[in-house]
Design a protein that fits this description.
Layout: H1 2-15, H2 40-50, H3 55-69, H4 78-81, H5 88-93, E1 95-99, H6 114-117, H7 124-134, H8 156-166, E2 170-176, H9 202-212, E3 216-221, H10 246-249, H11 274-291, E4 295-298, H12 308-324, E5 330-334, E6 344-348, E7 360-365, H13 382-394, E8 397-403, H14 413-429, E9 437-444, E10 467-472, E11 475-480, E12 488-491, E13 503-510, E14 518-521, E15 526-529, E16 540-548
Parallel strand pairs: 1-2, 1-8, 2-3, 3-4, 4-5, 5-6, 6-7, 7-8
Antiparallel strand pairs: 9-10, 10-11, 11-16, 12-15, 13-16, 14-15
Helix pairs in contact: 3-11, 3-12, 8-9, 8-14, 11-12, 13-14
Length: about 550
């Protein structure tokens, strides 16, 4: 009998170690560092307990995800999901707006990873928080910034009107970033924009305004990375260690990323529990149910091997849900998070150096230092972004262009000016961008871009010899990337001895001008002379019509 009394606790302690973890005493310090003190399982259990009040709603959402994933044209297996076809509107749209807005815009310092880095003593965000918000109190943390995020000047209709004027065709605001604060009305969290801060559903307001403006509405989820995001806080005296705030800070597991490569997920050994991936699935199911997005953008960490099952189920659920509601959903993903045939591959701050057969997307930001708003940031010029859009479209891609609003909901003047300048260019030249397909070659000229992610600024200034091509039926568009000083240009790809052999040109028109373009098509090139008063700010477009051979 005595043996049994000793054996039962011993067995239980092995199977369920968190049940026998030393409970904090009344004198224990809840802010004390917990990394290498508590096990990953203990830490995860604290997080699970902190969100257990929502177990009933989570179970409902998971049951709905499972039902819908098996009710429709798709099933949660890649053999079915690779049959997915992107909607035509998305391939025709070419240009979208991305929005990083949240509590991290309050300090307006460093970048959108401020919530993580403010717990790293070696980082500028740590010093910034200590100087401006902590007042010498280690118990203060990211949660103290939430009441300062008020969005008091946010006007969804004004935003949507600007996006419309920019020429964008779809809008993708961040529903939740790595910080774990829901910028929507979540019924799985206490830490939401409806329950705290602005106390209004800014996401629904924006969805309504965007759709009223005739644009397509999507959203992005960066929730997966929240699993490790606050891990620095576990190494120091901070509120991240206090179980009382686990529902905000998450498990904050130690991040075992591949050295020197944040996206090397095949070598990422970070602890990820089944409870975490199921919660991730439930939250994204909730977003789809409530906001019916036509696009769901995921950041890179859903490519972690532990997410594979949940990602497969979400993909089938979302595509079936969209079909049941009369539309075709789009999933933007990075790296190898999905099978490449099952969604739209996105290259963060990157481009391609050739035409990609499967339609793709680049997401980049108008600002250079941060995706969210920070003071004293630098910005890409309208010319740079117009050129980037042209180059991407010529290679069968879309541009999703990000900006960060201020915490009060206002849009920086530099952003507003850039978007309006792009809109003005597209108003004249949009015929060569929207609803086009790649031509036989994407372009010609000395200026080339470096393919892959994180290379979008690795390009020299374009010259008058640089052209990019698009097509629409039998019409070909040649877009000159810079104005020729003498008004003359030679486009070699359009010569009859080159790709131009496929079209017998009968007319050359300069978009936006009623004046005549002088031209001659020879074997080596199409030689053109622009009208003397030709307007070619940023780039100009020649519309070539004729009989296709």
């Amino acid at each position: 009998m005595k043996i049994r009394l000793f054996l039962v606790p011993a067995i239980l302690s092995v199977a369920f170690p968190f049940l026998f973890a030393q409970a904090p005493t009344q004198n224990s310090d809840p802010l004390a560092p917990t990394q290498d003190v508590k096990s990953a399982e203990q830490i995860d259990h604290e997080w699970q307990q902190s969100v257990s009040k929502y177990d009933t709603e989570r179970k409902r959402l998971l049951a709905e995800a499972d039902r819908q994933a098996n009710d429709g044209p798709y099933r949660p297996d890649w053999a079915t999901l690779i049959k997915y076809q992107q909607p035509q509107w998305y391939k025709d749209a070419k240009f979208g707006i991305f929005i990083h807005w949240g509590v991290y815009s309050v300090p307006a310092a460093e970048n959108e990873w401020y919530p993580r880095n403010m717990y790293d003593p070696k980082n500028g965000a740590y010093k910034n928080f200590k100087e401006h918000y902590a007042n010498g109190d280690d118990a203060k943390g990211y949660k103290e910034l939430i009441p300062l995020f008020r969005a008091e000047k946010f006007d969804a209709t004004e935003w949507a009107q600007l996006f419309k004027a920019s020429g964008a065709q779809y809008v993708v605001p961040v529903a939740e970033h790595h910080d774990g604060f829901s910028m929507y009305d979540s019924h799985l969290s206490d830490w939401t924009v409806v329950k705290m801060g602005p106390k209004r559903d800014t996401l629904m307001e924006l969805a309504t305004a965007v759709r009223a403006a005739g644009l397509h509405f999507g959203l992005s989820s960066h929730r997966a990375e929240h699993n490790f995001f606050y891990s620095y806080g576990r190494t120091i005296h901070s509120d991240v260690n206090d179980p009382k705030y686990a529902s905000l800070y998450g498990p904050a597991h130690q991040w075992f990323n591949a050295p020197g490569d944040a996206h090397g997920l095949e070598d990422d050994w970070t602890y990820v529990s089944d409870a975490w991936t199921r919660d991730w699935l439930a939250r994204d199911t909730e977003l789809v149910e409530k906001y019916k997005p036509e696009i769901v953008y995921f950041d890179w960490w859903i490519g972690h091997p532990t997410f594979r099952r949940a990602v497969t189920e979400f993909t089938a659920f979302y595509y079936n849900f969209a079909a049941a509601n009369g539309y075709t959903g789009v999933i933007d993903f990075k790296d190898y998070s999905l099978n490449w045939k099952s969604g739209t591959r996105d290259f963060e701050r990157g481009q391609q150096d050739h035409i990609i057969a499967d339609h793709w997307q680049t997401d980049t930001s108008i600002s250079n230092a941060s995706w969210g708003y920070i003071e004293h940031d630098t910005f890409k010029s309208p010319e740079f972004l117009v050129h980037q859009l042209i180059d991407i479209v010529s290679k069968n891609g879309n541009l999703l262009l990000n900006f960060g609003p201020r915490s009060d909901g206002t849009i920086p003047d530099q952003v507003r000016t850039t978007l309006l300048e792009m809109g003005a260019w597209l108003k004249v030249n949009g015929e060569a961008i929207y609803a086009t397909t790649p031509w036989k070659t994407f372009g010609e000229g000395p200026t080339q871009v470096k393919g892959g992610a994180f290379h979008d600024t690795d390009v020299k200034a374009y010259t008058a010899a640089d052209f990019r091509f698009t097509a629409k039926g039998s019409t070909v568009y040649a877009i000159g990337m810079a104005c020729p000083a003498d008004g003359k240009a030679s486009i070699h790809a359009l010569g009859t001895a080159h790709e131009g052999s496929s079209i017998s040109i009968t007319n050359v028109q300069l978009l936006g001008s009623a004046d005549k373009v002088s031209w001659t098509q020879a074997a080596d090139a199409l030689d053109i002379t622009l009208p003397s008063n030709a307007a070619c700010k940023y780039a100009y477009t020649l519309k070539l019509t004729g009989a296709v051979k």
